[in-house]
Amino acid sequence: MSMHFEDSSSVTLLFDFWDVHGPAGMALSVFVVLLLTVFYELLKVWKIWLGERSSLAPAPPPPSPSPSSPESVGSTAALTSIPSETSLAPADHSPTPTVTKSWLLHSIQTVVHVIQVTLGYMLMLCVMSYNVWIFLGVIAGSVLGYFLAFPLIGRF
Fold this sequence. Notes:
The chain is 59% helix and 4% strand. It is mainly alpha-helical and 156 residues long.
């Protein structure tokens, strides 16, 4: 394998079955690589959006003590409404919808990250085929993807 860029229309990309011979196959391969790179840039924006969304998720509110009225100070109802007494009550540790939503967002963000890393390494291997046309397809896809995707960050 050569270690310099070539402009031939014959290359094997990623797998043995992606063996390109001829200008039509090279044009199709460059287009596929360009689309994969645009998808990679969209994944980066989606991961940023999910991160902002998970940081904006409200935390569950702390239990607030009920205000005691002045006429019930001597009664047992007033003793149960004192914050120190209510804090001794067993807490309900069932997951709240906010916690469940936070875990779901984190899980989705993890899956998106794995897909993004995998796709990034696949694109790197495409560039390492040292084919000028594939390299230009990755660069053009990155430019197009960034141009299309990053203005979307402020719109969510």
